[in-house]
Design goal:
Number of strands: 8
Shape: globular
Structural class: alpha/beta
Number of helices: 14
Order of helices and strands: HHEHEHEHEHHHHEHEHEHEHH
Radius of gyration: 22 Å
Distance between the termini: 47 Å
């Protein structure tokens, strides 16, 4: 990756030689007419910026890098992506293990005045460590690795943090306020616009948060069972729900062992769960196999949307962070009934 970034920065430097040959008046004219450039990595960031900017978004170039359905954990930036980041006015990214490439990209940025927003840094101590719970597929492998490290006397690996911070409406309120403050610093002329817009948007988020709280309080079931990865740690923690899952949220595994399937099927029987959950984009095979191994074999399979496959085209067709989280609430109500 570092070699790739070096090549990209060499291209930038080469282009800079030619841009420097223009007259001062030409460069000034370009600067005066240039739109604010904002680069985001994922859909929630992109949508939050549009909501906060409101009509002023027409005077900005807002880019979403993960715009082809690629999962955050599998994304690798293209040369064009690196160039966009290098010269943008504001860059917003999650800041977890999947974003390790960002450090090198920012180190070579041509715009040294760029405002950088790292979502996990903004949230600070409220960020959760990646959690391995009873029955998860990766539990056995991680225990073996841990034991191996102890035997060799090496230091333990650093804690890995759960990157899916946007799947908490409470987090969204904090993050949007920070993004609004950053936009005010970037575009002081529209300070009042951004403050007004973020206040109205946070009010909607807080209303939705209350609807989640009320739904969970009224629910007869307090446990979710996922035949899939589990990126919803922040959501269940917000409302005091329990969960079981085949894989951790950041797991790269796609095949569940017989032991994992049986554990989850038995847990569904034990708790009397009538719903089995999965994440958007899943082929449903693990959830169905779990269902087939329960006593009743009649559980309904429901899907929660983690927004990792949402594109700009979806946004243009009316999809928003709020609309997805509202649909997730409807699914959650059914799952907990």
């Amino acid at each position: 990756m570092k070699k790739f970034l070096t090549v990209c920065m060499s291209i930038l430097a080469f282009c800079g030689l030619f841009s420097g040959c223009g007259s001062q008046s030409e460069q000034s004219e370009v600067s005066d007419n240039q739109k604010i450039s904002i680069v985001t990595t994922i859909f929630p960031e992109y949508d939050w910026v549009r909501e906060i900017m409101g009509d002023e978004a027409e005077n900005a170039e807002i880019t979403m890098l993960l715009d082809n359905g690629i999962d955050l954990h599998n994304y690798q930036p293209t040369a064009d992506d690196i160039i966009k980041i290098s010269s943008c006015d504001m860059f917003i990214y999650v800041g977890g293990e999947s974003d390790k490439w960002v450090e090198d990209a920012l180190a070579e940025a041509t715009n040294k005045d760029m405002i950088v927003v790292n979502l996990m840094d903004v949230l600070g101590d409220t960020v959760r460590e990646e959690e391995i719970i009873e029955g998860m597929e990766s539990e056995k492998h991680e225990e073996e690795e841990y034991e191996g490290v102890e035997k060799e006397g090496d230091e333990h690996e650093e804690a890995e943090y759960d990157e899916h911070v946007w799947l908490s409406v409470k987090n969204a309120s904090v993050l949007c306020r920070h993004i609004a403050d950053s936009l005010c610093g970037l575009d002081e002329e529209n300070h009042d616009v951004y403050e007004k817009n973020v206040a109205a948007y946070v009010e909607k988020l807080e209303k939705l948060d209350k609807e989640y709280e009320d739904a969970v309080e009224a629910a007869s079931v307090k446990t979710l069972l996922f035949g899939d990865r589990f990126p919803f740690r922040y959501l269940v923690d917000d409302y005091g729900l329990d969960y079981y899952a085949a894989f951790a949220g950041c797991s790269a595994e796609t095949e569940a062992s017989f032991e994992t399937i049986v554990f989850l099927a038995d847990k569904a029987d034990e708790l009397g769960l009538s719903k089995i959950m999965q994440v958007e984009g899943s082929d449903g095979s693990i959830a169905r196999t779990i269902r087939d191994n329960t006593a009743s074999k009649d559980q309904t399979i429901l899907t929660l949307d983690s927004m990792q496959a949402t594109t700009m085209k979806d946004a243009q067709e009316g999809t928003s962070y709020l609309s997805i989280m509202e649909k997730n609430l409807d699914v959650l109500k059914e799952a907990l009934a």
